[in-house]
Design a protein that fits this description.
The protein is of the alpha+beta class. The chain has two domains: 57 residues, no CATH class; 72 residues, Herpes Virus-1, CATH 3.30.40.10. Helix content is 34%, strand content 12%. The chain has three helices and four strands, in the order H-E-E-H-E-E-H. The strands form two sheets. It has a two-stranded antiparallel sheet with strand order 1-2. A two-stranded antiparallel sheet has the order 3-4. It is elongated. The N terminus is likely disordered.
Length: 129
């Protein structure tokens, strides 16, 4: 157990248990790193911090392992355009994948925006407006 409390309050104990579970998962997934440091009293204590940005960088084609919507693991679908993944049940009906191709809601909205933006510039460049 990472955190301990000297309180018999069940709610506090449940919170501490959940906090420890989440911290251990974050450590296992390397989303948080720990190190032992010496305090001013010359005692050793464990601290937690975010890893360097390079350690978190995804390679092209890599995807997250947890759902972008609910932040849980499980059976997921991968976006073709970004590292996001989703559970089918976390997607709106109109964004569920057709066959093997899946573009997440964020990328879908971005692509519509880019299309409209480029269309407006095309018409402006051609003198239609």
């Amino acid at each position: 157990m990472v955190w301990q409390a000297n309180n018999n309050n069940n709610v506090l104990n449940i919170f501490i248990d959940e906090l420890n579970r989440e911290l251990n998962c974050a450590l296992k997934d390397k989303l948080v790193v720990s190190e032992v440091v010496e305090t001013q009293r010359r005692e050793e204590t464990e601290i937690y911090k975010l890893p360097d940005a390079d350690a978190l960088a995804l390679e092209k084609g890599d995807h997250d392992w947890y759902c972008f919507h609910c932040h849980l693991g499980g059976q997921i679908v991968k976006c073709e355009d970004c590292p996001r993944v989703y559970h089918l049940e976390c997607l709106p009906e109109d964004r569920k994948p057709e066959k093997d191709l899946f573009v997440c809601p964020t990328c879908h909205v971005s692509s519509i925006y880019l299309f409209i933006h480029s269309l407006i510039h095309f018409y402006l460049d051609c003198g239609f407006f």
